[in-house]
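subagent[fold] <- orchestrator: predict structure for attached chain, return tokens only, no commentary.
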Amino acid sequence: MIKFDIKLIITLSLIISSCSSLDLLKQSYKNFSHSTSTDYYIVQSGDSIWSIGLNLNLDTEQLIKNNNLKMPYTIYPNQKLLVSGVLTKRDFIKKSKVNEWHHPLGNKSRTGIKDGTWLIFKEPKGISIHSISGGKVVVSGPDIPGYGNLVMISHPDGYLSLYAHCDKIFVETGEDVDKGAKIAQLGNSEAAYPMLKFQLRKGGVPLRSDNLEFLF
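subagent[fold] -> orchestrator:
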């Protein structure tokens, strides 16, 4: 009878069961290269500086500064972007110190559906969408796949607001907007039904939706 080392069997079982997790880990970090003191992101086809910040929870403003990028922040496939000091913890920020934001639909009676780090407002197509605070428009249009017509506004103190799946957009990239300004209409671009999908970020990290209710 063949005798098996129980420790060896357990080790092999753990290795086999973790293969899928290892594959996912490799997939998630395949675009990063690491050295002892430096982190880089390898730009892929279709990337923009804002899509990288959005998808990887990076502080885009700091990413721009790290790489000495100038307007319009053009990047190229296979380009190495320095992200040392930009990589954020995956923990979500729990609180915002900013008070009295404007409701994105201009009506405090509307309650969004909480979905992780997003608030989803199911309302009729064409309803006006407003900037929650003063800032500069950094994305305007279908620039980031999966979000439809997207408006992204950079606010003071490292805040960034996102308004996804819009219909018509009334602001352009680089434009300064005031608190409460009408920026778009609610729509269903890249969505199954009319909605506003809203998110607020601080330093590149999204705030959880259950911590956003106190804002409006």
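orchestrator: received. Logging for downstream: Helices lie at 6-17, 19-29, 49-56, 60-66. The first strand starts at residue 32 and ends at 34.
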